[in-house]
Amino acid sequence: MDVVIYFKEEDTKLCGYVEGEIDTFTASVLREELEAVKIREGLEIYLDLSKVHYMDSTGLGVFVAFYKRALREKGKVKLTGLSKRLQRLFVITGLSELMDIETDEKVELSNEGI
């Protein structure tokens, strides 16, 4: 499966829509698309992950690098539309405490299913 990302910009907001699976094989495509984003001070970037079906640690690394770059360049990044599975991935890694993630409900770390 591939990963697709497209953007829609309006004023000081940039909305990115990510679809597919983000893994070792597809992360480079996502990385290139995110590196091409011109971040300027005050730009609010929303990345909708509602159509991401799978993500591994390579994908997490891509988002962390983009998030750090946006902070350096005084932009803001918010991840939205994460499935419970993706939310759990961010919680387990501790990234949910560092990154701005919008969720409908908070996913707690538990021993269930481990």
TrEMBL record:
Pfam families: STAS. Residues 18-114 form the STAS domain. Keywords: Phosphoprotein. Positive regulator of sigma-B activity. Non-phosphorylated RsbV binds to RsbW, preventing its association with sigma-B. When phosphorylated, releases RsbW, which is then free to complex with and inactivate sigma-B. Belongs to the anti-sigma-factor antagonist family. NCBIfam families: ant_ant_sig (TIGR00377). This is Anti-sigma factor antagonist. The lineage of its organism: Bacteria, Bacillati, Bacillota, Bacilli, Bacillales.
